[in-house]
Each structure stands twice: as structure tokens, then as C-alpha cells.
Task: structure prediction
Amino acid sequence: MDNNQKAAIYDDCVRESDRLQRENSKIKSEYAGNIPPHLQEVIRKNDERIAVLVGRLESLFK
Result:
């Protein structure tokens, strides 16, 4: 894999991770500690996806 491919993957991962983190922050700020169960599930799934993206980023630099 060349550096251009790595850069494209990096950009995609960072962009998606940022979007998911913003979504989580928005939910948390709107409900301020009283988050409904269905939105807690959304946050959990977003956190899982973020962890996958972080793993992908880490593997790019090994």
C-alpha cells in the first residue's frame, strides 16, 4: 500500500470518527445525563465503530 492510499484511508477514518463523536456529543448535551435507552444504544454503537476506526488507523502505521 502506498502513501496516497494510506492518506485516503486515514482521511476517511478520521472524518467518520469525527462525525460519530459529534453525534455522540450532541445526544449527550441534549439529554444531559438522562439519555433514553434507544439513544444509549446509538452511542454504544458509535463508540464501537470509533474503536474499529482507531484500530484501522493504528494498523496503517505498523
Observations:
- Helices lie at 3-31, 37-60.
- The chain has one domain: 3-60.
- The longest helix spans residues 3-31.
